[in-house]
Specification:
Layout lengths: L4 E7 L10 H24 L11 E9 L3 E9 L10 H15 L7 H14 L5 H17 L1 H7 L9 E6 L2 E6 L1 H8 L6 E15 L4 E6 L8 E5 L5 H12 L8 E10 L2 E10 L1
Parallel strand pairs: 8-10
Antiparallel strand pairs: 1-3, 1-4, 2-3, 4-5, 6-7, 6-9, 7-8, 9-10
Helix pairs in contact: 1-2, 1-5, 2-3, 2-4
């Protein structure tokens, strides 16, 4: 099982004192779970399944260690009725390394990784040229789709650590630093950010069309954007609006929501609110 062990090591800042701020660590582990299970599922089944609950591979934490601050994760089938093949770990490592580097600021290794990826696909038993090309295209699509999750992985950088090192059986797969985080956060127009928590103020609410105008609590300029609410319960949003109407910017009026977002010119342009955090 050592070949299926992934270590996330956080270094610098708080991590040097063997601790990590909990909310940023939770965000990082959530992103890592999505990335690792998606790549693991593809390696085991040669299928990219976006919804994590439908994947056949699950990711488990085996415990944190105080060498700076590191967390060990291990993969297994959800039903635990199958055994991962002996070649799984090596093939998984190549694909994960490719996905992480495709979403980082350093592109120097991509040509080398592309060659290694071709060989890894063949190791899965694929010799047909058309099949190999199709699977390589699927991996590129998977890597692009996982960009928001990679962004979650690196959330602690700059906040509670300086670097995040991802390794598999002591082999480094990727070392993230601030430049990588900045690159990942440089989102393209119309790009979708997966479900995340946001702290917002609601300034207007249309209960018929289930839309609202909001601004982020962290935005000192109070730029308002449109939000669509799919949450069947509107009462928390009505309460937040009422509190805001009585006392703008008061802590009581701030509401935490779980939402997807779209981006324009590297800024969130619209929220799609699913629930209250």
């Amino acid at each position: 099982m050592n070949d299926n062990l992934i270590t996330l090591r956080y270094d610098g800042l708080d991590a040097d004192f063997h601790k990590i701020e909990l909310s940023s660590l939770a965000e990082s582990l959530k992103g890592a779970s999505k990335v690792i299970s998606s790549v693991g599922n593809f390696t085991a089944t040669q299928k990219f399944i976006r919804k994590q609950t439908n994947q056949e591979i699950a990711v488990y934490a085996t415990g944190a260690k105080a060498n700076c601050f590191s967390v060990e994760l291990i993969m297994d089938f959800v039903g635990q009725h199958q055994i991962l093949s002996g070649s799984f770990g090596a093939t998984f490592s190549v694909i994960l390394m490719y996905v992480l580097n495709r979403n980082s600021a350093k592109k120097d290794e991509m040509r080398h990784l592309k060659d290694a990826l071709d060989k890894a696909i063949q190791e899965l038993g694929n010799k047909d040229k058309n099949t190999i090309e199709r699977l390589l295209n699927t991996i590129d699509k998977m890597a692009d789709s996982l960009k928001p999750s990679v962004g979650q992985m690196v959330e602690p950088i700059g906040n509670s650590c300086k670097t995040l090192n991802v390794s598999n059986n002591k082999v480094e797969l990727k070392n993230f630093e601030q430049a990588d985080k900045d690159f990942i956060n440089n989102l393209g127009d119309d790009e979708i950010i997966g479900l995340k928590e946001y702290s917002v103020y609601i300034t207007e609410l249309d209960t018929i069309n289930r839309t609202a105008k909001i601004y982020f609590a962290s935005d000192t300029e109070k730029n308002r954007i449109i939000a669509e609410i799919s949450d069947p319960t509107l009462s928390p949003y009505i309460k937040a609006l009422s509190l805001y109407s009585h006392n703008h910017d008061s802590p009581e009026a701030e509401i935490k929501v779980i939402a997807k977002a779209t981006v324009k010119q590297n800024k969130i342009s619209k929220l799609f609110i699913a629930d209250i955090s």
